[in-house]
Design brief:
globular, five-stranded mixed beta sheet, 5 strands, single chain
Length: 278
Amino acid sequence: MNTDALQVANSMKPVWFFGCDMGGWHTRSKDALAICRWTPSGIDQHFVDHGRLFFPLSPNSRLINGIEVASKSNEKVIIAIDAALAWPRDFLRLAVSSAKASHLPDFDPNTGQIQNRYMFRETERFIKQHVRKSKDPFSAPGDAFGNPSSKAQAVVAAILNTFPQAYRPPFDPWDLITSNSAAITVIEVYPAASQVCRRFMDLRWCDDEDTFRDLSADDENDAKRCSVTAMCYAKTIGILHSELHVPEVWLPNEAGAEFDAERIRKEGWIFAPKIDVR
């Protein structure tokens, strides 16, 4: 089946969007999960919860159980996680070498910190240049963001342990046919990057009266933003019909020659809405 035919077929099937706002390892209240089910006639189910949701991730957890229910109905699932799903390659080189103290950093300390490849991934440099230009993204090695990020990586491992067919772009080969064909997809998102897009901020979560512009930046609302960013991803790759009024996201192949494609493949990609500057 060619890409156009596949997209037409996909646009008629229900799709589940799971948004995960990740707290730290020992949180009792900071995890949040937002789920909605899209059908050609609109959103017909939605759910939001917070607490200690993602570790340990039991088979009866709302996340695993929800994926299983959707899979049994042959409905697609896209899971959007607000956390770094991998580490900067140079940081890993330093960490692996730490016991022998054998690795010497080789970057220019006189450049801005966003150019420090021990702190920031290629995708974060892309976000800084093309999406959220006014502020550096969080750094998993350099900020408290590393706590929820390491837990998120364990959560993804638990998802893959139960659903080994899950697709993880760009760690798995990226192309439109593969992304369209995936029954279960796990992506990384960044609510703060979604919020610089006017079209995104004018959207509503399911039947909420307020737009995202009006909602606070608490854990549940960030989970909602993750879920809707997953919907933007689905529209971009053609799983949802093109008339859906959500913005498209940047895809890994759109980074351009100035960004290292191999680093993106190994470090991951933040799927962020394309902005109209405000």
